[in-house]
Amino acid sequence: MSDKMKLALDRINNKQGKIEESDRIDFCHTHFAELSIVPSGIANKYPLNINFDELPHRIYRFKDDLTEIINGNAYSYYLNLAKQVYQEVGHRKAATPMMLMSRFESLRPGYYGSKGAVLIANTLIGLFINTRILTVVKSYPLQSINYIQEVLVPETAMRLIFEDIGGNSSLETARNIMIASSDFGDYVHNCDNE
């Protein structure tokens, strides 16, 4: 039994008969992850250990590529996706929390998990918002912070994964790995695991 499973079981055992539904759900999620998500991720060679301290330096190397996306000089799958949503439902509705949550699944940073998402976003804010490279005009129709979350975070995660797999395939392959490895990342590299 893994340490996470032992901890989840200990939490339930310490409730002394007052187990809540949320405790059961947490335990079942941990159990499912340990029996299915993690072994599947290991079989697919998703990293159990990531040097998160190194990520900002790796992200800085993508600054030129990401600036080209911001300036409209390079293709971005995620920018096209965001613009499509804004055109279909309108600017106001597309920016609502419910609409953002509906797109969340496709924007997760793969096996980098929520820990990676936070680090990537913070690094990108420093690179592009604090330096005024990403402006309200350039991020339109998205707000600058939404542009970071919906376009630049997944574009960056895709490039990190592309590097991780040797840089010999395509960004499309990296995007497919990012999508397939998101549950693994959400479990293994979660901010709550600190």
From TrEMBL:
Which InterPro entries does the record match to this protein?
RTC4, RTC4_C
Tell me where in or outside the cell this protein is found. Cytoplasm; Nucleus
Residues crossing the lipid bilayer are none
Principal location listed in the UniProt entry? cytoplasm
Q: Which GO terms describe its cellular component?
A: cytoplasm; nucleus
Keywords of the record: Cytoplasm, Nucleus
According to the entry, every stretch annotated as the Restriction of telomere capping protein 4 C-terminal domain falls at 69-191
Does this entry carry the keyword Cytoplasm?
yes
Instruction: Determine if Nucleus is one of this entry's keywords.
Output: yes
- Tell me, in a sentence or two, what this protein's role is: May be involved in a process influencing telomere capping.
Q: Which PANTHER family match?
A: RESTRICTION OF TELOMERE CAPPING PROTEIN 4 (PTHR41391)
Q: Which family does it belong to?
A: Belongs to the RTC4 family.
What is the protein named? Restriction of telomere capping protein 4
**From which source organism is this entry?**
Rhizophagus irregularis
